[in-house]
Amino acid sequence: MPEIPNPIWLIGLIGLASYALGSIPFGVVITRLMGLGDLRQIGSGNIGATNVMRTGNKLAGALTFLLDAGKGAIAVGLAWGLVGEDAAQVAGLAAFLGHLYPVYAGFKGGKGVATFIGTILALAWPVGLVTCLIWALVFRLSRISSLSALVASASSPILAYALGFSTLIVLLCCLTLLIFLKHLDNIQRMIAGTEPRFKSRK
């Protein structure tokens, strides 16, 4: 954990603002604007980029991923630039919680993968880059998005230690735990062998 030299009230204020930013359900907004229907009534009902891709609109899926990742990155970047690393870590966690439990969507949010990636890239881009590479490798081999997310997130605290970002280990462990909790249904389906795979391109 980093040192916390800043006032608790300031850290709390940044956390609240970051939560509000993280709560914006971009998947829902984009699918409605593009005339794709109510995302919460499509596929798994999840508001994240993976479920947006199930609409068949790749542009909508890509935009959702970028915006959801941007929530974490912007929250971290602003907090670090204005206050410091302690505020940046709180901002990353708060934005992540906002995505998982958004106040604007009845606290029913996404599974946090894109926001996790944006957060970690903003906090320590070398760790974020390798985490993304691990996600891509696992996905290429398995074609299972949820498995890729679980393996990549679980590797992030180890990567933080190995690459010299030990102050991030506690935060990354917390984010990883939340990702696993949000993927419990996926884990059960993987154990049963029923988790959907994305089709490979011919």
Structure in words:
The N and C termini lie far apart (46 Å). This protein has helices at residues 8-22, 26-33, 49-53, 58-82, 85-100, 113-123, 125-142, 145-162, 169-182, 184-192. The chain is built from ten helices and no strands. It has one domain (8-192). α5 (85-100) runs parallel beside α9. With 202 residues, it is mostly helical.
Outline the fold blueprint.
Elements: H1 8-22, H2 26-33, H3 49-53, H4 58-82, H5 85-100, H6 113-123, H7 125-142, H8 145-162, H9 169-182, H10 184-192
- Assess the beta-strand content as a share of residues: under 5%
What's the total helix number? 10
**Tertiary shape:** globular
Number of strands: 0
Instruction: Extract low-pLDDT stretches.
Output: none
Considering DSSP H and I runs of 4 or more, what fraction of the residues is helical? 55-70%
Overall structural class, as computed from helix and strand content, comes to: mainly alpha
- Could you give a short account of the major beta sheet? none
Radius of gyration (CA) equals: 17 Å
Mean pLDDT equals 90
Count of folded domains: 1
